[in-house]
């Protein structure tokens, strides 16, 4: 992290000489995250990829993915970090971004974010995520293992869905891409010796029966896929009952999918489509902003459950390589395991 901070400082010759001030932040999970400030007062957020590749399969090339998502979703009328620069130092990818104001929406010091604000935000992100994007090839640092890929999408030729810069997790159809990424996390579970609450074979069977729900998905959308309250920054207005949205952060889990994927983090540990259907303000705001329905039919509800299953599998496996432990993790792990069983039953 110090090397990245010094590299960034060297790019700012007009600043006062001196050592950068580095404050490590606790929000990072897959990556190291820090706030860095120069003597002159300029302050940014720095993300640094892990020193090894022991994480989940989808977690490789996360910095390139986040940079891509910031370029694409950053076109939306939604406050998001701006890229200052990207670098690779000592084999680790670094991403430097502007710092946003506000506190996470799950902070005890904030008031709730209005559901219609969240609905409009989601609609604007999805509109940007499905709109064609052009980028000069020299402006994008494509990971060596991802070449050749389209610098504007991170997708290999012939692929339209899946994780950017991960050709083995991409496919021409939404159903095939979903099958690949679930298979990857099931393989990760075996690699890290995670005992799943539902047998891998049963999960595969449930998924195959439900995959036709993706048949109507022909338009890929870059989804954020991590819109839980910790990644929504808010600032309470004086005397207001609802908070003002000041930022959407942590785009590293973004991938090409369909909009229902972004509903999962809004309704963790619940039957996602049922929870969202009951959220009338969010649905109304999304419809009025985008002209589209979030959950127009039963296939869309099934896709929401499929994305719930995928995220729950990620959550139950990732704790091992990240070394999570303690009472909080035991409770969290138990909740995720129950959720996996509930989702599998709802899809059966």
Automatic annotation (TrEMBL):
UniProt key word Transmembrane helix: no
Pfam families xref list: APH (PF01636)
Stretches assigned to the Aminoglycoside phosphotransferase domain: 22-290
Segments crossing the lipid bilayer: none
Annotated keywords: Kinase, Transferase
Provenance organism: Plantibacter flavus
Domain of life assignment: Bacteria
Name by which UniProt lists this protein: Fructosamine-3-kinase
InterPro entries: AGP_Transferase, Aminoglycoside_PTrfase, Kinase-like_dom_sf
Keyword Kinase in annotation: yes
Gene Ontology MF annotations: kinase activity
